[in-house]
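Structure request: Pyridoxal 5'-phosphate synthase subunit PdxT, Plantactinospora sonchi.
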Amino acid sequence: MAEVTVGVLALQGDVREHLAALTGAGATAVAVRRPEELERVDGLVVPGGESTTISKLAEAFDLLDPIRKRIGAGLPVYGSCAGMIMLATEVLDGRPDQQSFGGIEMTVRRNAFGRQVDSFEAPVELAGVPGPSFHAVFIRAPWVERVADGVQVLGRVTEGPGAGRIVAVRQGNVVATAFHPELTGDRRLHRWFVDLVRGATDGPGQHRFAE
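Returned structure:
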């Protein structure tokens, strides 16, 4: 299999957990804090954390526009929880000055499932990812309220709070979940994303759009 380098946006959030999960999934995992580090990766993970803080730090570290441009050029990107918010084209209940990277034409409601004390776990089946349902961990999680025609719904909450809500989506090479697979020992989603990166990579810095 082709070797790929997948970066984790290392400004705030559960960076270490994603680095470990990606390494376990067969990728070379690196932290990304600078534009020059972004240029060297074949794929990128935007971790869970605090979306408003990630937004401010991405601007302060001059990463907002470079990430947007690489997404537009076909870079495979996966966002979990706050990462889902950062990949949305519209965010509800966010700060007025909050910015996102975009990449998925969807409307996401921030902290839709409630506060920290309302965190919960529930099974989620993901389209295209083999095996049983994911044991999904939701922490101050968003949900997706609207998707455009070109967005594929990969999964919904099947029981418990917010049953039926969209919590996993994909548009081209960009994927997002409202839950945290990096906090469990289940590496299927990270392996699936690493395979997506391999399939979308034509060479260093060269990516094609997924069908």
